[in-house]
Amino acid sequence: MANTVAKKSELGQQSFIKKLVAAREFSLFVIIVAFFLFLTFTQDVFLTWLNLKTMLVSMSTTGMTVIAMAFVMLTGGIDLAVGATMCLGMAVGAVLFKGGMNPWVASVIAIASGVVIGWIQGMLITKVKLIHFIVTMCFMGICRGLVMYITKGTPISLVLPLSMPENAAFVKVGQGDLFFKNGIPLPILIFIVVVAICDFLLKKSAVCRQIFYTGSNEKAAAYSGIKTDRVKIAVMMISGFLCGIGGVIYMVRFSGVPVSAGEGFEMTAIASCVIGGVSMNGGRGTVLGAVLGLTFMTLITNAMNLFLVSPTVQELIRYLIVLAAVILDNAQANARAKKLA
């Protein structure tokens, strides 16, 4: 009896190890560690706390749009407006804050504006039956246009209002450190908490599992009683909510709103998600995988900066990585389809 239990335990451990090694996240994690070690030994500046801190804080804002994109892609859609939605939220919050409103209230309204944008997009996708690509591409331009109208085409500076003593607690949202001076940036801790909550809910919550079912086979999900339209609308609202949070952190971090804030974030988000194993066909992937994809993209960007690669060449390399990731995702999807056939 004891031997049987021991064998079952051993088989269970072996099965777990096989699953772990086969997981996309594990292989990506190994690549990230290897690349991290390569940069450590080739660039003296890489392992300095200043460089690592800069990368981490950068991830905290871009990362919100990555998680937002992951939610949308899991339903089989895509959100090209994540960067523009984030910028619009920043502009709304900054104008209200600079006009005398309490910064926390202004931030809530800024985040709410992202949720409203997500709701409108979701309604157009589900009720008017437009595709994600067209709707979000249009809203990318609409949000940018609203930002230009709100800001009159000039950056908004919040240096003066943020320097007021009564706003010291709010400043920590984007510029604060915890535990010690020049310690762990508060924005990255906020990001980690958001990642943990979203990853847990997607894996354990029965309600959030409907996102996977909708993305895997929308018709089957609908026949099983899932309100797929509600799921799509909710996911777009979640995307707007996360972009709004990222916008508030970005706004405080840079003490203002550059009108070009968030440009290119949509491509980084798509690349990070696909590299991290989130299928562009929907129904497969994890938030953790998407964040690992973002970590890889951040390391690539940092490496190019350290090796003094030209910005124009950097853009070329980033888009080549996106193309390679999409090709890999398509190849894996075709392989699974053949296997099931």
The percentage of residues in β strands lies in under 5%
Element pattern in H and E: HHHHHHEHHEEHHHHEHHH
Low-confidence stretches: none
Specify the helix fraction band.
over 70%
Distance between the termini: 41 Å
Averaged pLDDT, please?
A: 87
Strand order of the largest sheet: 1-4
Question: The biggest beta sheet, please?
Answer: 2 strands, antiparallel
Give me the CATH fold name: ABC transporter involved in vitamin B12 uptake, BtuC
Name of the CATH first level: Mainly Alpha
- Label the structural class: mainly alpha
- Second CATH tier, the architecture: Orthogonal Bundle
- How much is the radius of gyration in Å? 21 Å
How many helical elements?
15
Number of strands: 4
Description:
There is one protein chain. The chain has a single domain (25-279, 286-340), classed as ABC transporter involved in vitamin B12 uptake, BtuC. It has 341 residues and is mainly α. Helix 3 crosses helix 13 and helix 4 (82-98) packs antiparallel against helix 5 (103-126). Strand 2 and strand 3 form a beta hairpin. It has helices spanning 2-22, 24-42, 49-74, 82-98, 103-126, 132-151, 159-162, 168-175, 186-204, 206-216, 218-223, 228-253, 265-275, 287-306, 311-340, and strands spanning 156-157, 177-178, 184-185, 256-257. It has 15 helices and 4 strands. The longest helix has 30 residues, at 311-340.
Give a brief outline of the structure.
The protein is mainly α and 341 residues long. The chain is 77% helix and 2% strand. The protein has one domain (25-279, 286-340): Orthogonal Bundle (ABC transporter involved in vitamin B12 uptake, BtuC), CATH 1.10.3470.
